[in-house]
Structure formats: C-alpha cells, structure tokens
Amino acid sequence: MTDWNHGMDPTQQPSLDDGMQSPYEPELGTLPSSGNDEETVNKTGTTTIGIATDDGVIVATDRRASLGGRFVSNKNVQKVEQIHPTAALTLVGSVGGAQSFIRSLRAEVNLYEVRRGGNISIPALATLAGNFARGGPFFAINPILGGVDEDGSHVFSIDPAGGVMKDDYTVTGSGLTVAYGTLESQYEDDLSMEEARTVAADAVSAAAERDTGSGNGLVIAEVDQEGVEIDTYEYDDLL
Description:
The longest helix has 22 residues, at 95-116. A hairpin with a 3-residue loop joins strand 4 and strand 5 (71-74). The protein has a five-stranded antiparallel sheet. The chain has a five-stranded antiparallel sheet with strand order 6-7-8-9-10. Strands 1-4-5 form a three-stranded antiparallel sheet, with no helix packed on it. The chain is globular and about 45 Å long. With 239 residues, the protein is α+β, with helices and mostly antiparallel strands. It is built from five helices and 13 strands. It has helices spanning 95-116, 122-135, 176-186, 193-210, 235-238; strands spanning 42-43, 48-52, 57-61, 65-67, 71-74, 80-84, 87-90, 144-149, 152-158, 164-166, 169-172, 218-224, 227-233.
C-alpha cells in the first residue's frame, strides 16, 4: 500500500503550499480569475453622452478603441448602435463584451415584438439591460440607453453591477469627468435637438483633449418617434 503521508511530519498540519486549498477561498459569490490579460483586451475607453429633449434624444460618442488604454487600436469605432425601433445603446468597456450585450438585447427586443405584437417600452428595456449587465457574462460595460416611446424621451445609464439610473443627461466612460463639466455648463431644460447635438459634441471634444481613451471624431445618434439616425462627424463639423 502506498503511504501518501510518506516524508511528512504527522504532527505538522499541511500548508497551502502542500496543495491544501484555503477553506475561505474562493469567497461566496466570486469566480476564479478568467486569466484575461487586460493589456490585450480591446477597450473603447470612451466618452459617451446621452441628452433627453422634448423632441427626442441625442446620444454621442467618440470613435477610439485602445489596448489597455495605452495604444490606439482603432480610430473608427461606431460606439452607438440601434437596438430598438426608437432606441440606441452605446458601447463602453471591452469591445467584445459590449457587442455581445447589444446582440443579446436586440434578440430580446425582437422576441418581445413577436410575442406581444408591439415594441417594449424604454423603461422596461432599461430594466432588462440592467438585469443582463448584472447576471450575464459581459465584461466591463457601462452603456447609455437613449430612447423615445409614448411617454416621451428617456436617457438611462447602466452600470456594470446592473444599476439603472434615469436622468435628463448622463455621461459614461473614461472621459466623463471632463465631459460632465462641459455638459453641465451648457445644458438647459429647453434644448432643441440641434442644440443638444452641439452641446454633446462640445463635451466629447473637451474630453478628447485630456482623456487618452477618447478621440478621433464623433458618432451621434438622433432618436425620435420616427426612428434612429446615426451619423459620423469630425469635431469641426458641429463646433
């Protein structure tokens, strides 16, 4: 019979180095590290802005993606996508996670329409997005949802833990501190869609001056009762 204890002092407790797992790890509710190398993950870094007006919603983003926030890997990323006949969602965080998140939400929106014979409301869509962010396998996302339904214009930010917060305007991404300062100095309750577009562009432009994860122009989605229109701009086109 093999003596598995051979060579060990029977009076000495085995240590973690001897292969014994600590009874306190992993902690309840945690998962082992996936081993992802943060430096090689394509991230949008980003500055994304949503502004609700009486006539619709403006959602604006920059166009830069980076590796680990240090190297610009792409200068022409569309960081806002239509996910609903009258709603758009931004990409913030890892590109793969954000793209998967958008595909999942689009599928749910389509299923709702088929089953119910109508479009899901924007607040309900925001709640669904929060549930997905909290419970799904999406890596480091912090999107903005902007949409219009029969109750008016809506802007929601969705945090990585699934928190859903509605506001008249919001900013997410690595450039948010600079963008918020510009946005709050120019925002007014009665902005037109054109004025909101200019304010959003100015805020993204200001963030791009200081945030290495933001830059290379703008993508702007204009959302109203008629649908979603997404266009690409340079800063000089709007400022």
